[in-house]
Amino acid sequence: MKRFGVQLSLIIAALALLAACGGSGTAASGAKTLASSTPVAADIALPAAPAGPFLAPGQQTGDMLVWLSSAPEQPTMGNAQLTATLLNRNGQPIDDATVTYDTDMTNMSHGLYEVVAEPSGAGRYAGEVHFSMPGPWRVITVIERPDQPAVRLRFEFRVKNQ
């Protein structure tokens, strides 16, 4: 019985750790999931998240912070406008990027579907995507900037039935 209690304690601790890590957003390798105003280091505080709501927690990679939002706010089967918001660590918009959305379901592939997002100012990049069915989806946001390696950030969320 004591062994069961220890195992249960370990499971509870693991679940608490997963919950603290940000929920449904999945960062690509080298990226950190952001909570609003989470410090990167003791002496560097991140800017507050821009006005949301967002599909998944924001992510940090290098000096860049990225959030992904949708219109409609909760994507449904059909077309949706995705907007990536890119800020630097000082909260200034990043307007020199090329952003592409690579969308697919997480439980079955529908093949390659990429959309180039158009810059709309203030560090925002918008593109219309099509969700062919409800369920678990992921968007890999590919960000290319001059003289820097491309960054790939993975955002996961659910698409609902209409």
Q: Overview of this structure, please?
A:
The protein is built from one helix and eleven strands. With 162 residues, the protein is mostly beta strands. The chain has one domain (24-159): Immunoglobulin-like (Sandwich). A hairpin with an 8-residue loop joins strand 7 and strand 8. The N and C termini lie far apart (49 Å). 28% of the residues are buried.
Features:
11 strands, Immunoglobulin-like, 162 residues, mainly beta, two-stranded antiparallel ribbon, 9-stranded antiparallel β-sheet, globular
Low-confidence stretches: 4-30, 34-44
| Rg, nearest Å | 17 Å
* Helix content estimate: 10-25%
- Spell out the helices and strands N to C: HEEEEEEEEEEE
Find the count of extended strands (DSSP E, 2+ residues).
11
CATH superfamily heading: Domain of unknown function DUF4426
Level-1 CATH class name? Mainly Beta
Helical run tally: 1
The major beta sheet can be summarized as: 9 strands, antiparallel
Query: Quick one: overall form?
Result: globular
Strand neighbour order, sheet with most strands: 1-4-5-6-9-8-7-10-11
Count of domains: 1
Strand fraction equals 35-45%
Alpha-carbon distance between the two ends: 49 Å
Describe how the helices and strands are arranged.
Layout: H1 2-20, E1 32-33, E2 39-41, E3 44-45, E4 59-61, E5 64-71, E6 78-88, E7 98-105, E8 114-121, E9 124-131, E10 135-144, E11 151-159
Antiparallel strand pairs: 1-4, 2-3, 4-5, 5-6, 6-9, 7-8, 7-10, 8-9, 10-11
